[in-house]
Amino acid sequence: MSERWTLPAELTASADSWLEKLQEALTREGIERPETLLEGAPNAPEATEFNAELRYVLATSEFVAKTLSINPGHLAALARGELFRAQTEDDIAALATKLAECADQAALDRTLRLARNRAMVRIIWRDFTRAASMTETTAELSAVADTMIHGALNWHYRALIERFGEPVGQSSGAVQPLVVLGMGKLGARELNVSSDIDLIFSYPEAGETNGEKKTLSNQEFFIRLGQKLIQSLDANNADGFVFRVDMRLRPHGQSGALVQNFDAMESYYQSQGRDWERYAMIKARPVAWVAGGEPACDELMQLLAPFTYRQYVDFSVIESLRAMKGLINRQVQRKGMDSDVKLGVGGIREVEFVVQLFQLIRGGRDLALRERQVCKLLPLLEQEKYLPDGAGKQLLEAYVFLRNTEHAIQGYQDRQTQSLPADELGCLRLARVMGYPDWAAFFADLEIHRERVNNEFQQVIADPDSEHEVDSESLDAWFSVWEATGPDEQALEVLREANWVNAERVLALLEDLRQSRPVLSMQASSRTRLDAFMPRLLHALDQAPEIEAAEGLKRVLPFVEAVARRSAYLVLLVENPTAMQQLVRLSAASPWIADQLAAHPILLDELLTPESLYAPPAKDELRDEMRREVLRMSWDDLEGHMESLRYFRSAHALRVAASEVTGALALMKVSDYLTYIAEVILEHVLAVAWENMVARHGYPCRKDGTQEREPNLIIVGYGKLGGIELGHGSDLDLVFIHDTDTQGSTDGDKSVDNQTFYTRLCQRMIHIITTQMASGQLYEVDMRLRPSGNSGMLVTSLAAYEKYQFTEAWTWEHQAAVRARPVAGDQTLMERFAKVREAVLVKPRDEPALRRDVIEMREKMRAHLGSANGDRQLFHLKQDAGGIVDIEFMVQYAVLAWAQKAPELTQYTDNIRILETLEQVGLMAAETVAQLIEAYKAYRSTGHRLALQRQEAVLQGEDEFASERRQVIDVWQALMLSPDQT
Questions:
Q1: pLDDT value at position 272?
Q2: Labelling 521: which of 287, 442, 574, 934 has CA 20 to 30 A away?
Q3: How far, in Å, CA of 494 to CA of 486, rounded?
Q4: pLDDT of residue 335
């Protein structure tokens, strides 16, 4: 008997317990002992060897142990021979036949799951016992997946054409097949033992089915087919699941159509495809198709090739790869994933990146590089001198080791994780599967492989920009300042020679830092990092022209205290002088930014690339970044989504603040950008909340019994969000509107009526947005502008909203509607809301009564919110006479009073474009409009600046904005108090 099967004492109890349960299950099946199953089996081992292997596998894979205990028939079938040989084409053909012969969907789904479980037992057994190599394991798993996808697809296709006929092309008249693209590891035939499968569905040509009784468009037909396929593979029932299906790599991700025709696919990838989608497309492979669809598969791959591979040597991908790896590193650091053998430093992903980089750079010219499998490409890259001699071999050895480790982790409980175990028993179990006597021996080799991978990865993507070196003499001088105690003359001399004012104050600040609790409690290694960091910080402050150095030091020190116990951030700054410069520059420019970095030091990552820090992305790019951030996150990981959303918001808030304080972004663009951030976040919040609610209650149903597969709801932004005028720290004024059938209910096991469903959906969204987490909250949310305010329903139907606006709403609520704008949700409902809003705004009104209402509300606000006691030496930018709210109220009055004769006034929700429209339609003089716009911009710009300086929007001195205030007051007087004279 092989010594490999000898178990340490710690695993013996588990093995014995599972063996006893298995024996009980076998006994119920009339099987006396496991080894009796071997009788007549070809290639079977000796009974003692088999029993030892069985015990070993039960101890190292809880999934295998549970599966065999529940269904011992799997072991009986496998022991006849399949367990002791490689998978054959006959095995795959038999599985395909079995799927095709299923009588109904229930039989299909059960057959898929039983076959999957049996295949997984066999594959994990052979992998853990090293009867199969890593590449055999991944190839066999991929073949099983291909067969199951193909079989389920064609079964459902046959069932659907019986109901609706065959889908026929509008131009060609030919029957249209569905092509299923496998992405990622499935596409490369590298599937691991607990992979999800990434799929994209496409078909060649639009048209409709040729059914006799009922027809569907090809799009509708293939959407139904795709949904049926996903359900058969992904649904988890008493028999388990087949594969977790992830469709988020399709064009436009979760918000995109489930199925697209070839023209739409080509248009998307050629006009909107991102660099990271090029990386994903490298591994794309047709894994299933409707019978006769082979030519369509070839056509689709030819169509996608120009997007993936450029016809020139494309070095532009290096920067995008750096950015992608940076994003992954931020996720790893933020989520504590250092022990992740896939995403962590030196992990599987870095090997894949090395390979994919060369593929994208040179794959357009060198067709050999279009191979999908890493294990085949690494030797080729070394052979073709893309990698140094020996590097390809080392990376291949590391890759095989890491993939085997991944399989050992996942095969234990059939869980999709790549994290090393945290418990001692789990560590020992993993080490034994990997062929090591203990954890220490395994981990030592793991670290060697990870170091080799990371070294090669860093060489491949090394940044050529290595300027910023500081000479050692200068560092020594600044180190003397850092370590000085008391009024040290040498340190004072260094500071005076550098023209630092308040030198004594600087030394006192440094002494306070050294004596602070975080610094005193630092470990020796962390203190060494701090000692390396501080001289470089002082040098960077000395080189910064933006601020007096002592004041800059005072602003940065809270950050230093905050990261003292997480000294990896200090290392980041020492090794990236660019980030150090940005830290000093931005902290000098804005206490708000300094506070953000101190509260969320993870944001330091944003300082590494100034080109992106000071170049905020457009809204579509924000959507794309959000999509990539959460791409691999399951919908039920609510906390993970909430953390990702908070990081996304904080990172982009930092970018916009940095762009604003450095003058890289004008006021209007600042507000646009802050608004875009909120809108993209709200879109994803709605998607997450919807998926959570559907998982719990099922889909809401319409009167005709069909499902609402997407939210029949919109989020309406009011106030600054609706007006595209968000500032730093703005809250969100939101109203939720649905158009569901309130008499209907959901179709899940825990069914609720549709009104309750949508109410809970909105509650879940508010929870996601407002919950205070370690990384803060997303936004404060104000729901008081909904119909009937705090006493009204949380979500209302569009019909009820319309009725309220016409019969019950106060004038101030119609004022608020001027700035109401849908920001997320169903597009059709958005358009219907816009018509309701327009009808409300163009309603004829009694102008004198309207004027009285607006003036009365304005006076109440000024009395409660303006500067204290009307002090003329103070000017509240927003609330005092001549300020922002006066302009906003005049704009709202103008829309409500004159939209009946000039409906163009309802087109926009932001004050500046409404003012411009008032001029265009001849209702306000050009000079008046120019004065109001300039005053409004000046006020808001100053308000933004004060917010970034952590100051109130109240100015001292009677002369502050005296001219602008006078002009605004004069217009108010003419428009609101003396209208007959205007």
A1: 87
A2: 574
A3: 15
A4: 55
Q: What does the alpha-carbon distance between residue 297 and residue 265 come to, in Å, rounded to a whole number?
A: 13
Rounded Cα gap, residues 120 and 356, in angstroms:
29
Return mean pLDDT, the chain. 89
Specify whether the backbone of 873 is left (phi greater than 0), alpha (psi in -120 to 50) or beta. Answer: alpha
Residue 640 has pLDDT above 70, yes or no: yes
Q: 3-class SS at 289? A: strand
Q: Map residue 134 onto helix, strand or coil.
A: helix
* Residue 787 near residue 800 (C-beta atoms within 8 A): yes
User: Helical H runs in 207-274?
Assistant: 218-234, 262-271
* Tokens linked to 785: 């502008």
Lowest mean pLDDT among 149-163, 562-576, 841-855: 562-576
Structure tokens at 213: 């009784």
Strand ranges, E, within 812-969: 821-825, 874-876, 954-956
Compute the distance between CA of residue 370 and CA of residue 570 in angstroms, rounded to an integer. 41
Query: How many residues can be counted in the chain?
Result: 982
Distance CA 371, CA 363 (A): 9
* SS3 letters across 693-757: HHHHHCCEECCCCCECCCCCEEEEEEHHHHCCCCCCCCCEEEEEEECCCCCCEECCCCCCEHHHH
Listed range (365-369, 502-506, 880-884) with the worst mean pLDDT? 365-369
Q: Among all chains, which residue has been given the structure tokens 């607006």?
A: 854
Q: Which amino acid is at 414?
A: D
In the structure encoding, which two tokens stand for residue 495, read together? 């500071």
Report the amino acid identity of residue 351.
V
Using CB atoms within 10 A of its CB, is residue 804 exposed (0-12), middle (13-18) or buried (19+)?
A: middle
For the entire predicted model, the pTM comes to: 0.69
d(CA 285, CA 282) in angstroms, rounded, equals 9
568 Cβ neighbours under 8 A, 6+ residues apart: 333
Q: How far apart are CA 744 and CA 752, in angstroms?
A: 9
Weakest mean pLDDT among 164-178, 668-682, 751-765, 853-867? 853-867
Cα distance between residue 917 and residue 924, in whole Å: 9
User: Would you say 137 and 375 are in contact if contact means Cβ atoms under 8 Å apart?
Assistant: no
Q: Which amino acid is at 36?
A: T
